[in-house]
Write a structure and sequence with these properties.
The chain is an alpha+beta fold and about 250 residues long. It has 4 helices and 12 strands.
Length: about 250
């Protein structure tokens, strides 16, 4: 009897998988926070094409997900060592050589906090090879982070109230300021010296402010030189008047 070969099961294609569930983020703060984190990494690694950063997209790591819904939808994630292009609708590990995100951040809400802190941490750091995982709770601005350990996740200890990401070589911490016209407390990145890692708009604003400051300095210098010239002209006029007086009225006349 001839042997019957079972044809290989075709893996689902990323383009055929849902890229989102249609459920909006918890609040405008959550949406803008995701944009801010993405914009920060895009600016910090400006010119580089060896990474992908995304957010609020499905992360597929189980080809059988269609049957058991075994996938996640991180609010923010970074994958290093991959081509930035093409832009992805979702992150599908079996189309990316098995690569999973190096860093994932979840922005907590009352309805997701327990799942984010417990279940997702176990999936990301124990079942998968995600290197770092962070949870930021806007209710109290509490930031927690863990690294993948040999047996279990290792909590990242804060330094000056911030958490150091070895994968990104940046600190994560809260920052109060204006973003997209809203003054709130946001989760931001900081460099090793504690300086805020700016987004493109902030870099442009700093450049405009610096140019304006240079313009004001040039105007002030020109005005000072004009004042010195006027003073010198007045002194010359005074000396010429004195010479004329002396000429008309010699001392020994």
């Amino acid at each position: 009897m001839p042997t019957t070969l079972t044809p290989p099961v075709a893996l689902p294609r990323g383009c055929d998988l849902p890229c989102g569930d249609g459920v909006p983020l918890e609040s405008t703060w959550h949406l803008k926070s995701m944009w801010l984190l993405i914009a920060s990494i895009e600016q910090h690694w400006l010119g580089r094409t060896d990474f992908f950063v995304g957010g609020n997209q499905f992360f597929y790591f189980d080809p059988n997900q269609a049957r058991n819904n075994n996938f996640q939808g991180p609010d923010f994630y970074v994958v290093k060592g991959v081509n930035r292009f093409p832009l992805r609708r979702s992150w599908v590990t079996w189309e990316e050589g098995g690569r999973v995100p190096n860093v994932i951040v979840e922005l907590l809400s009352p309805s997701t906090a327990e799942n984010d802190r417990v279940d997702k941490r176990r999936v990301y750091l124990e079942q998968l090879d995600v290197r770092e995982y962070y949870c930021f709770d806007p209710d109290g601005f509490v930031l927690e982070g863990w690294r993948k350990g040999k047996r279990r996740p290792v909590a990242i200890k804060p330094k000056n109230g911030r958490l150091w990401s070895e994968e990104l070589e940046l600190f994560l911490g809260s920052w109060e300021g204006v973003y997209l016209r809203d003054r709130e407390t946001w989760l931001r990145f900081f460099d090793a010296d504690g300086n805020l890692s700016p987004i493109a708009e902030e870099v442009a604003a700093e450049r405009v402010a610096a140019e304006a400051a240079r313009g004001q300095a040039a105007i002030a210098q020109a005005e000072a030189e004009a004042d010195r010239a006027n003073t010198a002209e007045a002194e010359v006029a005074k000396l010429l008047a004195e010479l004329a007086r002396l000429k008309n009225n010699p001392p020994n006349a």
